Amino acid sequence: MKLNRRLLVAAIAGLFSTAPQAQQAWPAKSVTLVVPFAAGGPTDVVARTLAASISKTLGQTVVVENKLGAGGTVAAGYVARAAPDGYTFFIHHNGMATSTALYRKLAYNPLTDFEFVSQAVDVPMTLLARKDFPANNFQELAAYVKTNPQKINLANAGLGAVSQLCGMLFERALDVKLTAVPFQGTAPAMNALLGGQVDILCDQTTQTIPQIKAGNVKFYGVTTKSRIKALPDAPTLHEQGLKDFEVVVWHGIYAPKGTPKPIIDRMNAAVRAALKDPDVGRRMADLGAEIVPDSKLSPEGLQTWLKSEIDKWGPIIRATGTFAD
Ligand code: MLT
User: Fold this and answer.
1) Residue 322 has what pLDDT?
2) I need a surface site. Which of 1, 153, 207, 317 has the fewest CB within 10 A?
3) What is the model's pLDDT at position 4?
4) Residue 204: CB within 6 Å of ligand 1?
5) What is the DSSP string of 258-325?
6) How many CB atoms lie within 10 A of CB 101?
7) What does the DSSP 8-state code read for residue 231?
């Protein structure tokens, strides 16, 4: 199996080095962008917004495929094993780094089983509770959570999701342990929050801003160090007493290891074009997502960033003792 895969990689690489016309022919059919969480959720919204613009640049449809499970690690394993033929790409966030500490065994190595395409957007998170939750502001929330931890559940999108990371840091900051309720994305987690089946959710602005603005949830603050443009009146958790609390969700785009460099470069150019597309810019700004500077858009930049994130989060996660076998 390994030999076949190596032969396939060599054959594709040979094709691209000796036949420029074949390179120009890519993409000859639709390209798949794998999303590791549920449709309609934050990662999916970013993926579909980018995919629409990338499709225009490439002249082929970019099909978003949601592959759910195990906090994004099912999708990452799937992409790591996919054919490196330029028709499978993957978008993932901080989970690409945090999963290395959260899972004792992963079916892939995030640093060696992928080609790196580009970063894309940074997204703040927001701390929410169901609308009828007893705490009306952050100070009440902190007091209530400290005195009633056994009564409270905390929704997330599984081990490796940023909702799980944010919830875990919130628990650590208040020195409590709440009951985790995992979903396959924060789209279903948000439905449960709106339905009153779960109590607290820390989720990305790309999904939460409409619910906050409609008054459908209790909202306690943002997870960035500074206030954000999309919710200028909202205080940060840091300024309300959770000193240095910070979770910013970064997004990387990857391809299976061995995907030819000319294809990676063309996808990189298409992502850069998407991030300059005014429609993408408006949509991202409305949802609180910030397009990253050009300096973060190179394949090498993403690889270096991922390594630094693995180094940053590993010790923090291991100190909490949270992991899955
Ligand atoms: C997360 O918590 O990691 C994301 O919000 C998952 C998602 O996109 O649903």
Assistant:
1) 80
2) 1
3) 54
4) yes
5) T--HHHHHHHHHHHHHHHH-HHHHHHHHHTT-EEPPGGG-SHHHHHHHHHHHHHHHHHHHHHHT--B-
6) 20
7) B
SS (H, E, C) 174-201: HCCCCEEEECCCHHHHHHHHHCCCCCEE
Domain count for the chain: 2
Q: Is 187 in the pocket of ligand 1 (CB under 6 A)?
A: yes
**Model pLDDT, residue 325:** 66
> Which residue has the least CA distance to atom 7 on ligand 1?
185
* 3-class secondary structure, 31: strand
User: For position 18, what pLDDT does the model report?
Assistant: 43
**Residues 128 and 115 grouped into a single domain:** no
pLDDT at 3: 43
Report yes or no on 18 lying in a domain. Answer: no
CB of 36 closer than 6 A to ligand 1? no
Give residue 218's pLDDT.
98
Among protein residues, the one whose CA lies closest to atom 6 of ligand 1: 185
> Is residue 24 in a domain?
no
Ligand 1 centroid–CA 95 distance in Å is 9
Q: Which residues of the chain carry a pLDDT beneath 70?
A: 1-24, 325
Cβ of 43 less than 6 Å from ligand 1:
yes
pLDDT for res 1: 42
Range of the domain at 142: 124-222
Ligand 1 contact via 155 beta carbon (within 6 Å): no
Examine residue 242 and state whether it is found in any structural domain, yes or no. no
Whether 45 and 192 map to the same domain: the answer is no
Interval between CA 8 and ligand 1 midpoint (Å): 33
What is the residue with the minimal CA distance to atom 3 of ligand 1? 161
